[in-house]
Amino acid sequence: MKNQLSKSIIIILFFCPFWGEKFGGKVLAQDIHFSQFYMASLQQNPAMAGALYDTQVLINYKDQWRSVGSPYSTSAASFDMKLNQKKNPKGVLAAGISFFNDKAGDGNLSTTQANLSLAYHVKIAQYNTFGGGIQGGFAQRSINYSELSWGSQYNGTTFNTSLANGEPLIGSSKLAPDFSGGILWNYNNTSGEIQVTDNHDLKANIGFSVFHFNQPNISFAGNAADNLNMKYVLHGSGLFSLLNNNLAIVPGFMYCRQGSLQELYTGSMIRFKLSQESKYTFLHKGSAISLGAYYRAKDAMSVNMLFEYSNYAMGLSYDVNTSKLKTVTGLRGGLEITLRFVTPNPFTKKEATRL
């Protein structure tokens, strides 16, 4: 009986997406995050719209902590593109649309959000661009109270959900506007007038974004105030080809801070080019595979894989919990799957829109 209650308390404290500075104090909402953050552009920074490709489609799915109780399940999709796709424009205007849905716990605490993004990128030096973006949309949050158990429903042996819970009736759904923005520096030596030869690619980007400018009220309790804290994100990634072989180093990092909560996630992959796209017949498709690991400070280690084939890519990752929660999870964290489609084909020397 004691073990059952302890497990229930652990699940409440660790799996509810509201983490407070102290129990019973003000709670702070925790945004979704993907271990493959480099495959979730618009969830990372609105300025990423149109920054890396002429067009990009991403689909993400994450399932975590299934070994303990009711899992988190997060799905997302986004599409972004450059709007003025012509050679040598003074600047590139880009737009994007993104969507995500997150469900957590026995009460199916759900967040569904849809956003529109607008970005503009200008050339500041050879191979270098600098851009800014804004994002706006609506988020709906809901919860199913009938699936929850309360202390007043414990009869001494089990929880009897048919008993009155003694809790005041409050709303079960909340809709609120949400606005964000960001900036991004991007370097790509394959985007200039003179194309570099195969296996000499050098790419890097660093960005900063702020989410929830308006700090939307997410409280279910009528007019009670429970404002979502602004989230600050600093991120970067790169691709550095090694000379005279098919290998490249692909590092990345992301730092987030939201209220008193913070997250540092860093690591790298090694990319091996399996085949090069044929330049004239296109009978042979370019492909590559990347393997590596990332570490989320004081939380988890993520093993990552990315397979690229022509315009398509599929990413897989698995989080292995390393925090104190590992005594409950048994080191089992979450599986994440990502699909991507981009143009132009990254394995050809057909140029994207040039700045």
> What gyration radius follows from the Cα positions, in whole Å?
23 Å
* Helix vs. strand class: mainly beta
Widest beta sheet: strand line-up: 3-4-5-6-7-8-9-10-11-12-13-14-15-16
Tell me the overall shape.
Answer: globular
Biggest sheet: strands, sense, closure? 14 strands, antiparallel, barrel
Order of helices and strands: HEEHEEEEEEEEEEEEEHE
Number of helices: 3
Describe the 3D structure:
The protein has 355 residues and is mostly beta strands. The protein is built from three helices and 16 strands. It has helices at residues 2-15, 41-44, 326-329, and strands at residues 18-20, 27-29, 55-64, 72-82, 91-104, 109-125, 128-142, 173-188, 202-211, 231-241, 247-258, 261-275, 287-296, 300-309, 312-321, 332-343. The chain has a 14-stranded antiparallel beta barrel with strand order 3-4-5-6-7-8-9-10-11-12-13-14-15-16. Strands 1-2 form a two-stranded antiparallel sheet. A hairpin with an 8-residue loop joins strand 4 and strand 5 (91-104). Residues 1-29 and 193-197 have low confidence and may be disordered.
Summarize the structure.
The chain has 355 residues and is mainly beta. Helices cover 6% and strands 50% of the residues. The chain has a 14-stranded antiparallel barrel. It has a two-stranded antiparallel sheet with strand order 1-2.
